[in-house]
């Protein structure tokens, strides 16, 4: 089980926002896909990228991110499924020959799915030296995933939600915000989204808590399960809510609901800001300007025409001007209006309407200025 | 010289939304652009218009009107470039 059960086929940069040295590089690795199943992995990787793009704050920070897909073939499909698990769960008992040796039921938890973390890291680093985060998509429809130095998730229903959650752990050091054990006693945790401190002045996200918000905001005296009570404060209020790091009490998370607690919910403000803070430093900076003429046109007196130009990188800041190529007197000649279409996640189409306000025919250049380029 | 995204938001189908951003230095040459974030291939989705207010001797407020030309809600990103 391991590298003898597969091979790295190659790497493809599937989101390219500029040089890897300047961007935050996410590497997506295949696990448990046979050579004949690479199209399936490509589809899963693309679906995950789309999910990430649809998720704040990744969407707002999209231009900071490059994504690389590493095709890794395995001898068998899927992952190991031990027949019995420490938590009482059961599996098919299937043992597979896969490159990263992924298995469900890690650490006695049925849904905990991961493989050789060190090998995954080394494979990602060989593909993209100095990468910032790696995630492994495991070719199984059973629910599972894990954080750690590398994130893992399966192809269960809505699996990309699992992937985003696990990326929160592995890439941004966020803790789970749900319980699983009774009382946390291990002292103040390092993660930015859980705390044991209930003092208003010194708790981890103190500056974000309104003076009117009670602390703890929602406690859990029973300490036997996560409370199912409604939030005592309006949605979005930052406070101290019992539960986190897989403990029901003695530890608090910042908002009543968050993606680090419930898949499909948005990241809470504290988590979102922690993610954005890491990504922001990788956003493209001012560069250029790069100028040029994209098209040439001619308009009869009083005429309006529209031009479109496509496949412009959506991360570029592009300005448009129009310039007559011969003298036009008296008075103004050309007026233009820019309309914009997001043709795809990565590309923009510009629609430029130009009106000739003079009484003579005018020829002109349609010019661009790119002032932020990757 | 610097550039960044100043605001994000959603413009309902067929409507116009206005954002304002204040306390800009009048000495700065600021250019604004707006792009859709929501993919909508096939036709132009938005256009925008920028208006300027001298809010005080030392500050400028920019007002950016974004018109959604499409039949679907569009999330937009308002970007600035300071050219000097």
Please provide a brief summary of the model:
The complex is a heterodimer of chains A (374) and B (84). Chain A has 374 residues and is α/β, with parallel strands linked by helices.
In angstroms, what separates the terminal alpha carbons of chain B? 5 Å
Low-confidence stretches of chain B: none
Provide the gyration radius of chain B in Å: 14 Å
Please provide the count of β strands of chain B. Answer: 6
Name the helix and strand elements of chain B from N-terminus to C-terminus, one letter apiece.
EEEEEE
Major pleated sheet of chain B: 3 strands, antiparallel
Count of discrete domains of chain B: 1
Structural class of chain A: alpha/beta
Q: Write down the overall mean pLDDT of chain A.
A: 94
What strand order characterises the main sheet of chain B? 1-6-3
The CATH class of the largest domain in chain A turns out to be: Alpha Beta
Largest beta-sheet details of chain A: 6 strands, mixed
Q: What quaternary form is this?
A: heterodimer
Name the average pLDDT of chain B. 94
Give the helix tally of chain A.
4
Q: Can you tell me the number of structural domains of chain A? A: 3
Helicity of chain B, in percent?
under 10%
**Number of helices in the DSSP assignment of chain B:** 0
Anisotropy-based shape of chain A: globular
Rg of chain A from C-alpha positions?
Answer: 26 Å
CATH topology of the largest domain in chain A: Collagenase (Catalytic Domain)
């Amino acid at each position: 089980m391991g590298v003898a059960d597969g091979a790295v086929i190659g790497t493809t940069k599937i989101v390219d926002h500029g040089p890897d040295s300047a961007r935050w590089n996410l590497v997506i690795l295949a696990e448990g896909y046979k050579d004949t199943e690479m199209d399936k992995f490509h589809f899963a990787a693309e679906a995950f990228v789309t999910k990430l793009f649809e998720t704040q704050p990744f969407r707002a920070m999209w231009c900071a991110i490059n994504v690389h897909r590493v095709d890794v073939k395995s001898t068998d499909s899927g992952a190991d499924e031990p027949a019995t698990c420490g938590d009482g769960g059961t599996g098919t008992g299937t043992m597979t020959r896969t490159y990263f040796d992924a298995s469900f039921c890690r650490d006695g938890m049925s849904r905990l799915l991961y493989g050789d973390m060190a090998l995954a890291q080394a494979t990602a680093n060989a593909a993209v030296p100095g990468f910032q985060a790696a995630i492994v998509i495991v070719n199984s429809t059973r629910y599972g995933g894990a954080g750690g130095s590398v994130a893992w998730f399966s192809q269960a229903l809505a699996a990309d939600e699992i992937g985003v959650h696990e990326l929160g752990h592995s890439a941004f050091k966020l803790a789970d915000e749900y319980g699983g054990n009774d009382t946390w006693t291990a002292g103040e945790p390092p993660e930015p989204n859980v705390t044991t401190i209930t003092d208003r002045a010194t708790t981890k996200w103190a500056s974000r808590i309104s003076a009117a918000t009670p602390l703890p905001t929602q406690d859990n005296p029973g300490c036997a399960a996560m409370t199912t009570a409604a939030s005592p404060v309006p949605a979005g209020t930052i406070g101290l809510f019992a539960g986190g790091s897989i403990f029901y009490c003695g530890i608090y998370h910042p908002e009543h609901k968050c993606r680090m607690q419930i898949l499909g919910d948005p990241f809470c403000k504290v988590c979102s800001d922690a993610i954005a803070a890491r990504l922001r430093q990788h956003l493209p900076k001012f560069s250029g300007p790069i100028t040029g003429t994209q098209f040439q046109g001619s308009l009869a007196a009083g005429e309006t025409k529209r031009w479109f130009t496509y496949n412009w990188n959506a991360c570029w800041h592009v300005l448009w001007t129009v310039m007559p190529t011969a003298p036009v007197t008296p008075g103004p000649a050309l007026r233009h209006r820019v309309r914009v279409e997001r043709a795809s996640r990565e590309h923009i189409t510009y629609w430029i309407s130009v009106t000739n306000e003079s009484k003579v025919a005018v020829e002109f250049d349609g010019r661009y200025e790119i002032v932020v380029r990757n | 010289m610097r550039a960044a995204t100043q605001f994000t938001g959603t413009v309902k189908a067929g409507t116009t939304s206005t954002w304002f951003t204040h306390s800009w230095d009048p000495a700065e040459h600021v250019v604004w652009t707006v792009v859709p974030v929501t993919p909508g291939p096939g036709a132009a989705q938005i256009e925008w218009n920028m208006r300027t207010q001298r809010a005080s001797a030392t500050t400028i407020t920019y007002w950016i009107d974004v018109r959604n030309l499409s039949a679907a809600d569009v999330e937009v990103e308002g970007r600035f470039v300071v050219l000097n």
